[in-house]
Amino acid sequence: MRLTKASSLTLFRTTVIALFAFCVLGIFTLYIPHASAQTALEQFGEVTRLSDTSPIIMVARAIRVFLGFVGIIMTIIVMYAGYLYMTSQGVPAKMDKAKTLIKNGVIGMAIMFLSFSISWWILNKLLESTQIQGVVATAKKYGEPLKGSLGAGIINSTYPVNDAKDIPRNTKIFVEFKEAINPASIIAGYSEGDIGGPLNTSNVKIFETDAGEAGALAENAVFVSFDIAKKIFVFRPVNYLGSSEMPKNITVNLLPGIEKLDGKAAFSGAHNKGFSWHFQVSTEVDLTPPQVQSIIPRNNASEPRNVSIEVTFNEAVDPTISTGRYLLGEPPLFTNISTTFHELVEGVEDLDPTIIEGAYEISNAYRTVTFTTTVACGQDPCGDVIYCLPGNKDLNVFLKAAPVDPTNLPQAEDIIPDGLADAAGNSLDGNGDGQGCSGVVNAEKCPEGSNDNYTWDFHTTDEINDTIPSVVTLSPDANQGNISLTDPISATFNVFMKGSTINSNTVSMWPRNYVGDVVDSWWFYATKQDQGDPENRSTVQINHPTLVALEQGAEDYYPVFDQGLKSAYQICMFPASLADSNCEGAVSAALPYCCNGKPSDERCTAPPLAQDQNPRPLPLNE
Questions:
Q1: What is the pTM of this model?
Q2: Is 441 in the same domain as 322?
Q3: CA 170 vs CA 166, 323, 437: distances in Å
Q4: Secondary structure (H, E, C), 314-379
Q5: Which of 155, 315, 401, 570 is the most exposed place for a label (fewest CB within 10 A)?
Q6: What average pLDDT does the chain have?
Q7: For residues 44 and 408, which has the higher predicted lDDT (pLDDT)?
Q8: How many domains does the chain divide into?
């Protein structure tokens, strides 16, 4: 078969059309927005368990495979034409056929090579484009918008926590800031000296999620109170949230107009749009009183005098009535917990107990209250002051239950209760009988003599416990893969840890891709668990959004346990130690930190930002 001018022209036109088609395909696929498609594909893949790869990429890859296959066929045709030419034995017809096949094969190979080069370039650009868009899609998986102030920004904790379920309708809402806040920016008509007031709806919106901000609670529908440090604010809705017929999602928006006590904006930098979170209230009302879950020191224990006193409840308690301070000569400020001892005067015990000066702080998702004295007695390895209780004394700790409303047991009778109560307003059940009866005699539930205050005793020695806290186990361990995407990150220490030092400044977690949308959506907060541990140890946990798997575009995650984290004896974690968690080599005076499983002479931090965008606040206490 001879290649005529007509067939050559046809071949040329076919080549031009093929090249044009490839160019159109490249331009079309490069400029299709992938972000929205990516999200839909990922959702489809999660539900169906099928591939969530973009169809455009799948088609481009198929084209590349097809062209490669065609190239092999062309090579075989040229080899076959060469065979025919070598065996033609000078016969003109056979030689012409071989020449035609060789010529067509070479032209075809040239077309295939050019097409293959174009498709390779298109595919690479597609992958680069998808990778960039993948960061956006991945960022959206880290959390929801306006959550980034929790942990990385000015918010230390909330109650209920983000995305909590089955919250009772009569719950209060707590927000703890890391710095003192101007109450006037949260309380409408606030004047210095007020202990609370109506909601400033210009800066705080509380509403059913489906209804939107248009259905937000009105100013007088919420009573707001705060702690003495003006960092923790409690929102008490006048009426129950949600519905008695079906669960409802509640959203709380803290807007950019909220100010610090110095007048500066509370939300700034990467988090200048404010903070938002949501939770779901059930159809039920909580009438179960809180109980004491664990105490430090143990009842009747003998402890070194630098021990911190802690009580952990089985649920969140109102922080405005469980925190505060007592200073000699000043009235107690919001404290319903006291630590006392009896002095001996000429061998006779003074009947009037001496109240120990100090401060009460709340932590651990509003479940743990820690008492620290004001008497300095030394320094820890970080150079921080250690505070001590009176040595060689028998001490008593007293928790006051709030007086209850006789018509609505166990609800506290006041808007701001005069004693300990939970987030739903239920008074403390100090004797563990399931009833809250403080100040009430009720033949059915509260017989005469019922006492719901809680008290315990322990003895102090003249010793100082200087044990350096170290991590006994990590879960997951350093550099471990295939971890749960939802479980908290946890570290178990060799001693009880001081709850008030466990916060988002000392315990943090960062994804490497902390850029773009992730800055506004990545959140974390820390809690601890030490109930029932026979070895007197605490486990510190980092709660976080759902993680993103490596195959979905994420990179490594970096939990950071800072030296500001202290034991119950106020000793900092220095030098850092991973006792049983495979720190490659021992820490020492020259290498006092253990970072990512290796000794280091510098404090551990998360890696630098993947891009030079909004700077990340480092979780350090310099």
A1: 0.74
A2: yes
A3: 12, 22, 19
A4: CCCECHHHCCEEECCCCCCECCCEEEEECCEECCEECCCCEECCEEEEEECCCCEEEEEECCEEEE
A5: 315
A6: 80
A7: 408
A8: 4
